Write a sequence for this structure.
């Protein structure tokens, strides 16, 4: 049996999201200490911080908890609404600063930036129009460049912007418009294969077209049958996740092996962090899925 070529530029990890964690504190979520125990047991050396406040925010305590399990942090995550213009900068920077400081203290080098949702991921309430005006696109581009510059200067971190369902950076045209409007020295992408497929995008084509802008990967797959029903019914992202639209690889799309091969060809070191979007989920569901997913990724060479 032929073995997959080694993906020696890809560093695999997982995240609280794969344990059903979307919020800093929610009784339906996996407790943080169980997540750490199980992600290590599943064989992932790298993790993300997840929502700020889910894991301990005291650097000394968190370092001790990670060291005891042989874990390291690849990135923190922040949420922004920079399309709203300069008026949101101060609040954004306060949020970013807390997360960036902890991320730096953990020795990580990346900050995943998720644009704000235009409909609520809990309630599905429409919060604002799904399409930005030209002025708002300008605010988004300039604000993200400023964020990239100031995060680098202040914390030594690189931002990677995460195209995400039910945000304004989602489809292929929106992602291309965002990339074409921003400085590649300041702004790169966290390509989430599942979200991009959910919104109709082709991850391999994106890597091949904008390779120099790919700074980070999130690995997940979409169940195409459930997605077709979600699209037909106009189901928001949160309820779609509860329907199981994000599925365990290799049962969905996109095929992750070509994605990883395309990323390897870029010739740069990339994190590839597994995220399945399982909120909410049964307490005993994540670990077996994580173990099988790690085995699958090894079969791909990662």
């Amino acid at each position: 049996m032929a073995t997959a070529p080694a993906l020696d530029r890809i560093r695999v990890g997982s995240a609280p999201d794969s344990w059903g964690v979307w919020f800093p504190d929610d009784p339906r979520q996996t407790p943080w200490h169980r997540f750490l125990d199980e992600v290590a047991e599943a064989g992932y050396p790298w993790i993300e911080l997840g929502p700020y406040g889910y894991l301990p925010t005291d650097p000394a305590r968190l370092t001790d908890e990670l060291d005891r399990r042989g874990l390291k942090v690849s990135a923190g995550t922040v949420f922004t609404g920079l399309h709203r213009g300069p008026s949101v900068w101060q609040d954004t920077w306060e949020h970013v600063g807390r997360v960036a400081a902890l991320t730096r203290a953990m020795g990580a080098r990346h900050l995943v930036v998720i644009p704000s949702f235009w409909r609520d991921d809990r309630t599905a309430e429409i919060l604002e129009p799904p399409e930005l005006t030209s002025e708002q696109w300008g605010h988004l581009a300039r604000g993200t460049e400023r964020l990239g510059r100031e995060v680098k200067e202040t914390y030594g971190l690189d931002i990677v912007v995460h195209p995400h369902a039910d945000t304004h950076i989602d489809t292929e045209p929106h992602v291309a418009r965002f990339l074409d409007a921003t400085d590649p020295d300041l702004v790169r992408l966290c390509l989430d294969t599942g979200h991009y497929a959910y919104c109709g995008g082709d991850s391999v084509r994106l890597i091949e077209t904008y390779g120099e802008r790919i700074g980070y990967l999130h690995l997940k797959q979409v169940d195409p049958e459930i997605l077709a029903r979600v699209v037909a019914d106009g189901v928001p992202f949160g309820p779609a996740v509860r329907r199981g639209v994000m599925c365990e690889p290799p049962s969905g799309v996109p095929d992750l092996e070509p994605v990883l091969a395309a990323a390897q060809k870029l010739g740069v070191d990339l994190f590839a962090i597994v995220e399945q979007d399982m909120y909410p989920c049964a307490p005993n569901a994540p670990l077996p899925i994580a173990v099988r997913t790690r085995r699958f990724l090894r079969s791909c060479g990662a």
